[in-house]
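job 3f2a | input accepted
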Amino acid sequence: MKELLAEAWEEALEGLVLHRDRQVLYLNPKAEELLQASRKKVVGRPLLLALRDHRLEALALHGGERTLGVRGRTLRVRALPGRLYLLDETELHRRLMALEEATQALAHELRTPLAGMGPLLEALTPHTPQEREVLDLLKGEVARLSRLVRDLSLTQPGPRRTFLLEELWPRLEKLLGERLRGRRVEVSLPHTLHTDPEALFQILLNLLDNALKYGRDPIRLLSREEGGRLFVEVRDQGPGLPDYQALFLPRHRGFQGGAGQGLGLYLVRRIAQGLGGEAYAQREGAENVFGVRLPLN
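job 3f2a | predicted structure (297 res):
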């Protein structure tokens, strides 16, 4: 069995570095390629000699998961005790950047005509109930498209200020209104943060919307501080999912038959990156955790 596993890692498309006491024990061919390091020269030598990157070394020694630019590639790096996994996401990153540019161009082209359509519709006077019904439908669709364009454009943070996170909850509660009725939602947001409150509001709105659609009660909205960063999370007791990272890709739904457009978590990630943070999703015990890590300063 060990021989089969060893052969499999020799052929794997994911890089693997095994290490102990800051010394390299093993480097598979894919890791050689991604790190541009010859295992003949680095096995048995210091870990930093193979990684040649202090961010990678810190991750390998302390654990965690990050996306890093290394040797001209975009790598998804996951570190467990004694193991460092390297997944090349360069092509995925390139496609996402192209999609980002197309999204911004589309949002720019739609913003002006949509801004003009609202006042024009308000100026119309319906003469029959049928006309009023149609007019209300058009107003609703213009409002929905305007919100979508605003969300697509919300990658550059607006004005920042210091505020209590708990200030956001009354707005969320009012906006989600009926959808919260009968649901068990626990809120604990005791921290203060200096950032764009509107961007963070949109993040929490998308995460709560996701939890209300697909999660199970109790839903917990909380903030916590760890390692100099603030974690803002929405947790629910929904079933575990097979691939949490893929949920942040555009038009990807975690549940069959989902009613959304598959953009909610994609927007959360983009907005979090605009704030200098990162979005994440994972399983912890019986809970699905969707959140963002944000710098405290």
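job 3f2a | DSSP finds ten helices and twelve strands in the chain.
job 3f2a | closed
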